[in-house]
Write a structure and sequence with these properties.
CATH architecture of the largest domain: 3-Layer(aba) Sandwich
CATH superfamily of the largest domain: Periplasmic binding protein-like II
CATH class of the largest domain: Alpha Beta
Strand content: 5-15%
Number of strands: 13
Shape: globular
Structural class: alpha/beta
CATH topology of the largest domain: D-Maltodextrin-Binding Protein, domain 2
C-alpha cells in the first residue's frame, strides 16, 4: 500500500522542525505533543481522558499503576480525532510521546512502515503477552511484512439495533432478516411517522454501513480486493451490492435526508425513539438509555436473495485503540513494558468491560452485564454472519474522499452507476 508519508519525511536528519511546520493545519488540534526526557516520566498520547468511552476507567487505572510503581509517573496527552496529525507533527520534531493509544485506521496504517512507530512483535513475545491477545486481533494488527504495529487492546462489535416497541407500534411482528422484509418494515414505520433506519450518511457511520451492504454479494477475499483497489465496477458482486443498496435507499429504508446526518444525529434519533433501527458499534450501544435498551433487540443486517452470507451480517473490528511504541518509547522500554503489562492484566481488562462497556481484543470471559446491549452483541456468536471492515484495506488518502462519496450514495435518486463512480473517484483522488 502506498504510504502518504515518506520515510525520508520522518527520518531525515535535521528535517524534523521544518517538516512539522509544513504540515497542514488541523482545526481543533491541541498543542504539540512532546517527549519528556525524565526517565521517571512515561508520556502517553491517548484518545482516552475526556468523553471517549472508557476514559474514567483509564484515568483510574493510571492512578493505580502509579501507586504500584512508585517513582514512575504517567503524563497523559489527550487528543480526539486529530491525535494522528498531532502525533505526526511531534514525531517530525523528534518530540513524540513514548506510547500512543489510537486506532489502526487512515494515517496510522503507515506509521510502522515509515518508522513513526516500532514493530512490537518481539516485545509481545519477550514480555509473554502473545497468548493474552485474540488470534483475530493479532491478524488484523499484523502488516504485510509480518510486523505487529501495536499491542491490540480495544475491539468493537457493530451489530444492528431494532426497537421492538416501535416495530410493534407499526404492526411489524418480527425482526426483518431479508431485504424484502426490511422494505416492508420501513413502509409500515413511515405510515406511523417513525423513521426506519437512521444512519450518519455524512460521516464514517454511513461509510461503514454502505460498505457492509455492498458486501452482500462479496466473499471476504473479494471484498478485500475491491476495497484495496477501488474497482467497484469491475466486480460483479460489488455491482450487485450497490444495486441492493440503491433499492433499499429508494424504497425509503433510510431516514429522510440521511445524506446529511452524522453519528451524533443518528444516535440521538435512535436513543430518543424517533427512529426504529440503527447500525451501531458497541460504544454507541453502551450509551442507549435504559428505557430504549429495554425494548431493543440486537441482530444483523438483512440479506438479499443470493447473498454470499448465510445469515444477517454485522461488522467486527479488533483494531480500535492499541498501544503503539514510538522511537522515544524504545529509550524507556522498561517503563513501557511495566505500563503495557499492567494494562494487559485480566483485572484491568475486566474493568474496561464492566465499568465502560468496552469490547476488548484480549482473551477474557468477562461480559458487560451492566451494558445489556453490549453484552447481547458480545454473545451473538454464529447467529450472525460477518462482513469485512474495510479500514485496513482502503488507502489512507482515500478515507476522507470515501466519506464524501458516501453522502452522495445516500442521496435518494442517485443511480447505482453514479454511486460506483463516486466511490471510484475517491480512489483516483487518492
Amino acid at each position: 500500500m502506498r504510504s502518504p508519508l515518506s520515510r525520508r519525511g520522518f527520518l531525515a536528519a535535521g528535517s524534523g522542525l521544518a517538516a512539522a511546520a509544513a504540515l497542514p493545519a488541523m482545526s481543533g488540534c491541541s498543542t504539540l505533543a512532546s517527549a519528556d526526557s525524565d526517565p521517571g516520566t512515561l508520556v502517553v498520547h491517548t484518545q482516552l481522558g475526556t468523553t471517549a468511552p472508557g476514559s474514567p476507567t483509564y484515568t483510574a487505572a493510571v492512578k493505580d499503576f502509579e501507586k504500584e510503581n512508585p517513582g514512575l509517573r504517567v503524563k497523559n496527552l489527550v487528543n480526539g480525532d486529530d491525535l494522528p496529525q498531532v502525533y505526526e507533527t511531534s514525531r517530525l520534531a523528534r518530540k513524540e510521546p513514548d506510547v500512543v493509544m489510537v486506532n489502526l485506521y487512515d494515517k496510522t496504517l503507515a506509521w510502522t512502515d515509515v518508522g513513526a512507530t516500532v514493530d512490537v512483535k518481539d516485545y509481545l513475545d519477550d514480555w509473554g503477552l502473545r497468548d493474552r491477545v485474540l488470534p483475530a486481533a493479532l491478524t488484523e494488527w499484523t502488516d504485510d511484512e509480518g510486523r505487529i504495529r501495536a499491542f491490540p487492546y480495544f475491539a468493537a462489535n457493530w451489530p444492528v439495533a431494532f426497537n421492538t416497541h416501535l416495530l410493534d407500534r407499526a404492526g411489524v411482528g418480527a425482526i426483518p432478516t431479508t431485504g424484502d422484509q426490511l422494505i416492508g418494515t420501513a413502509r409500515k414505520l413511515r405510515a406511523k411517522g417513525i423513521a426506519p433506519v437512521t444512519v450518519g450518511g455524512n460521516d464514517w457511520t454511513g461509510q461503514k454501513l454502505l460498505a457492509q451492504i455492498i458486501q452482500t454479494f462479496l466473499t471476504p477475499e473479494e471484498a478485500r480486493q475491491v476495497y484495496t483497489t477501488g474497482d467497484f465496477s469491475g466486480s460483479r458482486g460489488a455491482r450487485a451490492g450497490i444495486d441492493y443498496f440503491v433499492t433499499l435507499r429508494d424504497a425509503g429504508v433510510f431516514a429522510d435526508k440521511a445524506q446529511g446526518l452524522t453519528s451524533d444525529s443518528m444516535t440521538t434519533q435512535y436513543n430518543t425513539e424517533a427512529a426504529a433501527i440503527q447500525s451501531a458499534m458497541s460504544s454507541a450501544l453502551a450509551k442507549v438509555p435504559a428505557k430504549t435498551a429495554g425494548h431493543t433487540e440486537i441482530g444483523g443486517w438483512p440479506l438479499a436473495p443470493g447473498a454470499a452470507h448465510e445469515k444477517p451480517t454485522i461488522l467486527r473490528s479488533f483494531t480500535l485503540i492499541g498501544f503503539w511504541i514510538s522511537p522515544n518509547g524504545v529509550r524507556k522500554l522498561s517503563s513501557v513494558e511495566k505500563f503495557v503489562r499492567f494494562m494487559y492484566r485480566p483485572d484491568i481488562v475486566s474493568r474496561f468491560i464492566t465499568e465502560s462497556g468496552r469490547d476488548m481484543a484480549l482473551v477474557t470471559d468477562t461480559v458487560s452485564k451492566d451494558f445489556p446491549l453490549v453484552a447481547e452483541a458480545q454473545q451473538l456468536g454464529d447467529r450472525v454472519g460477518q462482513a469485512l471492515l474495510p479500514d485496513l484495506y482502503v488507502p489512507p488518502t482515500a478515507t476522507q474522499p470515501l466519506i464524501t462519496a458516501t453522502s452522495t450514495a445516500f442521496t435518494r435518486g442517485t443511480s447505482a452507476a453514479s454511486v460506483r463512480s463516486a466511490l471510484e473517484s475517491a480512489y483516483r483522488t487518492a
